[in-house]
Amino acid sequence: MSKCEVVIVGAGPAGIACGYVLAKAGVDVVILERGQYPGAKNMFGGTFFADQMCELIPEFYTEAPVERFVAKKRYALLINNSEVSLNIDAEEHKKSPYNHSFIVRRSVFDKWFAKKAEEQGATIICGTAVTDFVWDDKRIVGVTAGTADDQDNVLLADVVVCAEGANSMLSEKTGLRNRLSMRARCISVKEVIELGKDVIDERFGLTAREGAAYEYFADATPGMLGDGFIYTNMNSLSVGVGVIISELYGRKNPPSPNQLLDRFKSHPCIWPLIKGGKTLEYSAHMIPMDGYKNLPRFYTDGLMLVGDAAGFVNNSICHEGVNMAMASGMMAAETILENRAQRRYDTKALRQYELRLKNSFILQNMKSSRDFIDILRTHKELLNDYPHLMKEVITRYFEVSDVPKSTVKRDIVRMIRSRVSFVKAAKTVMALVKGGI
Amino acid sequence: MATAEKNQLSLNDKLFTVRRKPLKESHIRLDKQLCKKCLNRICTYICPAEVYIWSESKNEIDIRYENCLECGACRVACDSIEWANPVWGTGIAYKNS
Asked: B76, A184: Cβ pair inside 8 Å?
């Protein structure tokens, strides 16, 4: 049985950021990671929002293993075999600090970030899966990587930070959250496809370290709440799909996530971007979809939840995740530093953590998009009927023929009227503006 | 969709790209008697690695735990699945994701 001041479960962005801040302040902090190395079990789509990282390590992107910065964004609707999209290519985003948006591969990046925390004095122990907390009555006093009576694998601490990630099994054990429901998690799969820098630059219209982040909705996951994505690494693409688990449940002939990915990849608007590549790695991960209204409690006596374990992902079109993870880890660290003199980490002391969260962009952004997923779930027309109608309207309008445009316009208005209730559509849009985006 | 003509990898080929340190024993527990009565068997389609296969001949679920990508979707989808993190650094080790 050993002892340290703070133990952190999980070396992802939340855990490492927490450990970094604590170690820098001279705290005896140990991070336990279940993978062979930090990043071994980690995967995400691709975009890293880095304002917190810049706070810790200014201009980190000059030394970190960053693939590219996000120079081009695309929000696209796949509609049957077609695509309608919005491209954003803003010159403001192409100079330092690059809108704080970088494309990284986590198995490489997390390893680098972990090393930075070690340089500050944090201890990171890999290959150690925490199986449970150690309790003293109602207070958490440490963690164990073995069975409860196995004292050799117990690490005691003044306070524990749980950064276990999206598969939040330890958090469930504390009672801070219920067993995860199918609606509370998205299952995401991706392939990293090697193509070479020149081919990628040419296909996506990029130069130097410019990168592209493409998001695809509607028929990317037909009839289901989900999305598809392509992010450009330096020499490879990250291509994937995600779908909320409950969306597959009970469906007739449900596809597996891998089948959804293959279908997405072979879409006629996707295939030309990825063809000829070699799949370097297939991976899968869950994404928290708890949403503001179903977040767990964030702390108990001796414990704080940070990052995905606390459900800190903004499920709007912004995909904020890693930035929230890092920010929450840093707030947990600041809360610890504030109470370090008294060595008191009971619920009264840790309430400061929740106050910090409430006063920050984390809970404020999650609150402002609190209804987004519910609206998409209850208004299936938003990702089905409306995009299909929109595509028909656009193709009809741009159809080259000798039919006078006035007739075309009249037909279009008729087409829309017969298929959309304006009152209903207006209500949906209002709801989206109020609590969606 | 024209998957075959676009020459895509099979799931087995994809799983072969994932580096692993082999598990000594299964990290998945499941009362297979319950599966016989299960109407949905979501485990057979929710898993990105298709770890759970319904075997008609054995009339039970086959669990190919060695293929697990450790996402945890199965345990979220099915309350009867007891899933634990592989211990001592075994299991997947992504290099490119």
From this structure: yes
CA torsion, points A137, A143, A145, A146, in degrees to nearest 10?
Answer: -10
Which residues in chain B have Cβ-Cβ distances shorter than 8 Å to A145? 87
Compute the count of residue pairs across chains A and B with CB atoms less than 8 Å apart: 155
What is the CATH T-level fold of the domain A183-288, as seen in this structure? D-Amino Acid Oxidase; Chain A, domain 2 (3.30.9)
Q: Report which of A299, A340, A400 is spatially closest to residue A6, judged by C-alpha positions.
A: A340
Tell whether pTM > 0.80.
Answer: yes
Q: Nearest Cα to A324, choosing from A74, A46, A17, A21? A: A17
Digit-coded pLDDT (tens) for A372-409: 999 999 888 888 899 999 999 999 999 999 999 999 99
CB B11 within 8 A of CB B50: yes
Which residues of chain B does A308 touch, with a Cβ-Cβ cutoff of 8 Å? none
For the segment(s) A2-67+104-177+296-368, the CATH number from 3.10.20.310, 3.10.450.700, 3.30.365.10, 3.50.50.60 is 3.50.50.60
Q: What ipTM describes this predicted complex?
A: 0.95
pLDDT tens digits for range A176-228? 999 999 999 999 999 999 999 999 999 999 999 999 999 999 999 999 999 99
**Hey, are the CB atoms on B71 and A167 less than 8 Å from each other?**
yes
3-state class of A158 per DSSP? Answer: strand
- Tell me if B15 and A131 make a contact (CB, 8 A cut-off): no
Contact A249 B18 (CB under 8 A): no
Count structural domains, chain B: 1
